[in-house]
Structure formats: C-alpha cells, structure tokens
Amino acid sequence: MNRPSLVNSTVLIVGGAGFIGSHLVDRIQAEGATRIIIVDNLFTGKKENLYHALSNGAVFHVDNAEDQEVLNYIMEKYDIDIVFNCATKALNYSFYNPSNAFLTNVLVLKNLLELQRKQAFQTLCHFSSSEAYGSSQYQPMDEQHPLAPTTTYAAGKASADLMLQSYVKMFDLDAFIVRPFNNYGPRQNFEGDLAGVIPLTIKKILDGDAPEIHGPGQQTRDFIYVEDAVDIATKVFPLIPAGECVNISTDQQLSIENVVETIIDVMNYKGKVLRMPNRKADVISHRGSVKKLQSICGQYPKTSFKDGIAATVNWVKDSV
Length: 320
Prior knowledge:
CATH superfamily of the domain at 10-184 and 226-249: NAD(P)-binding Rossmann-like Domain
Strand order of the largest sheet: 3-2-1-4-5-6-11
Distance between the termini: 46 Å
Helix content: 25-40%
Strand content: 15-25%
CATH topology of the domain at 10-184 and 226-249: Rossmann fold
Structural class: alpha/beta
Number of helices: 10
Number of strands: 13
CATH class of the domain at 10-184 and 226-249: Alpha Beta
Radius of gyration: 19 Å
C-alpha cells in the first residue's frame, strides 16, 4: 500500500473547524504535517476552535464544500496529498431540515471522490458515524453490522459510505472509512437545538436549570472522548486497507441515565432531573466492537468517562 505519511504531507481537512474536525487538525499538526488546509462553512464549526492551529501556520478557508467549485479551487491552489472529510451537520438538524442534512453528508463526499478519481490528491479518510448502523441488531456491533439508519442524517452517512466503497472498487482509489461512535469532549456545541446531550446537560446545570432525560433513560451509547477518537484515527491511517471501514469505539455501553448521573456527580449538582418524552427515531442501543480496530493497531489508551466529563465540564465553564 503506497499511502503517503501524515508527516511532511499537505493535508486538507474538510469540516475542520467543527468539534471532531478541529481536534483532528491539532492532532495532525502535532504528527508533523507540512501544511494543513481547513475548509469549513461555520454552520456549527467555530473559528476559535482553530486558534492553536492557525497560530501554528494552518490555513483556513470559510467556504462550503458542498460546492464542487470550492474544492476545485482548493485543489488548484494547494498541492494536497491527503484529505480528511469531517463535514456534516448535526444529527438533531435532520429533524428540522431532513433533506439538507442528508445531502450535506452525500454531496461533500461525492465532490471529494470525483476529485480523487481525477487524481487531484492521493488518500481520503472519511469520517462516518455509528448512526449509520441504526439500533443494534446484535452486540457488540462490528463492521459487518447491517446499515439500518433511523434518521436522514444517518441515511446520508450510510449512503456516503456505500458511495466511497463503490468508487474504490470502480476506480481503485485509496479511500477508507473510520466510523466513530458517540464522541464527546471540549468544543462540542452546547447551545441551541443542535447541542449534544453531554455539553447541553452541563450548560443547563451551570445556568441553574434542571437537566433532562428524554424517554426511559435506558437507551445506551458507546461514548468516546474526542481526543482518543482522533488519536485512533491517526493510528489506523497508515494501516487500514482501501475500501474498508473500522469502528472507533470503546466497547462499552453507558445509558443516558448513567451519563446524566455522572455529570451530576462531577458537578456536585443537588437539584432535580426532569423526565421528558422520548425523542422520535432515537437509537435504542449502541455498543461498538473494537475487534477489528485492535487487529489493525493493537490496544489504545482510553480516557475514563468520568475524567472525560470533568475535562468537558471545565471547558464549558471556560467557554460560557
């Protein structure tokens, strides 16, 4: 496999001002990339997420990668070796604008694959989501688990994954998929309708509002600290074969009730918890298999959930 190293490469990160994308930018910069180019339309991303990266020479274009001409321009301006695609719109957004949430996931990747097919760059790492699996049909969920999405966001992720794999087969491209489970940590959006459950709960408690649990609270997720996730992505980068997919997971299940209780414990909150109606199309159970991941890159360090929550609480406190 003649894949370029992250060291001394020019790397484009699409969606690089977002939650996961900005941590990936920092990580790849630390790995020794020669130059990092970032494209983000700031739909949920924030320029302040890139403060460290920009002060160390990263280049930032505020633009929309759904527009093929934007990416054509970037490829002509810079000699890109490697692309990481983190562009997406939050799952919650699909309840407000289902078609646009779907299309963002599909169009950005389509644009990148068309450029790669024309040899504009060499290697593509695409960030999918465990949401593409839907609720677990068996556990732990390995990479052979059926794709049975329950939202248009997830359907867009699943469609994009299948599109990438077909392009690899048709045109022999060096492209692969990493499929993170539920990321949490600093820089995750805590405001408005698109906020993640962990930072939203932290913000409610800081504001003196009661945290909420929707539905029974027994629905489970496989939470992974964002810095662990991008660390794993860089570890599998040189090793995963083209066309393949690997879960980025901790192989653990935490109920939403347990998540809220952990935040309450870390923040020493003594108030009540509101019980709210179940969310539509909510995934019931998620636990990812790490068997393939471990076969590719061995064991990896895991941030304990409580330590990750403490770091996230500190970040939200500093950000409000």
